[in-house]
Amino acid sequence: GESVGLHLPTLSVQEGDNSIINCAYSNSASDYFIWYKQESGKGPQFIIDIRSNMDKRQGQRVTVLLNKTVKHLSLQIAATQPGDSAVYFCAETPDSSYKLIFGSGTRLLVRP
Amino acid sequence: DSGVTQTPKHLITATGQRVTLRCSPRSGDLSVYWYQQSLDQGLQFLIQYYNGEERAKGNILERFSAQQFPDLHSELNLSSLELGDSALYFCASSGQVGNSPLHFGNGTRLTVT
């Protein structure tokens, strides 16, 4: 079916440490994946995306890893900052309509 | 600022009523998507329009309907409202053909009392 799930609902990290947020997806036909950040009272904000023909993509302080063999996606945030505190969602596109199917989210808390 | 505008920001209404949520996509974007987010939940896809035509449908209730107008803005109509319809409703838009990020507005918070 079309579902994307997360292993950890809440992740607490020390400021300056690296954060890793994980996501499992179920649709092997999905060929595009995105990570979004949602702060309180705001809409989801695009962080980084990756296509299924890649296994790693880097942005500014963020890296997304895709393991198609086990249908696993992760978001790594380097040197986590207080401003990174938010809920993070992974999402996938399971078909040619290009709609996004979202996971349930992980709350990231950054301790000062 | 994503460039996607949603109005109103907040809406409080009673059960049984009907409301209309409005979305203006980013300039030039042809696709509009509607999502529902209940408290502490993920985003549930409702419906997608592309250049005025319905493109994909998710778990949208029959009491809900949407449309996209020639100027590309979109409206989501919710009728016979129930307490469980209280949620954040997000609109997103995209412009490219093919997989690309969706750009989200800041949502309309609907409270049904």
Would you give an account of this structure?
The complex is a heterodimer of chains A (112) and B (113). Chain A is mainly beta. Chain A contains no helices and eleven strands. In chain A, strand 7 and strand 8 (72-77) form a beta hairpin. Residues 1-8 of chain A have low confidence and may be disordered. With 113 residues, chain B is mainly beta. In chain B, the strands form two sheets. In chain B, strands 2, 4, 5, 6, 9, 10 and 11 form a seven-stranded mixed beta sheet that branches. In chain B, strands 1-3-8-7 form a four-stranded antiparallel beta sheet, with no helix packed on it. In chain B, strand 5 (43-50) and strand 6 (53-57) form a beta hairpin. Chains A and B meet through strand 4, strand 5 and strand 10 of A and strand 4, strand 5, strand 9 and strand 10 of B.
Task: Itemize the secondary structure elements and their pairings.
The complex is a heterodimer of chains A (112) and B (113).
Chain A: E1 4-5, E2 10-14, E3 19-25, E4 32-38, E5 45-51, E6 56-58, E7 62-67, E8 72-77, E9 86-92, E10 101-102, E11 106-111
Parallel strand pairs in A: 2-11
Antiparallel strand pairs in A: 1-3, 3-8, 4-5, 4-9, 6-7, 7-8, 9-10, 9-11
Chain B: E1 5-7, E2 10-13, E3 19-24, E4 31-37, E5 43-50, E6 53-57, E7 64-68, E8 74-78, E9 87-94, E10 103-104, E11 108-112
Parallel strand pairs in B: 2-11
Antiparallel strand pairs in B: 1-3, 3-8, 4-5, 4-9, 5-6, 7-8, 9-10, 9-11
Helix content of chain A: under 10%
SS summary, helix count of chain B: 0
Fraction of helical residues of chain B? under 10%
SSE pattern of chain A, N- to C-terminal: EEEEEEEEEEE
Number of strands of chain A: 11
Alpha-carbon Rg of chain B, integer: 13 Å
Shape type of chain A: globular
Enumerate how many helices of chain A there are, as a single number: 0
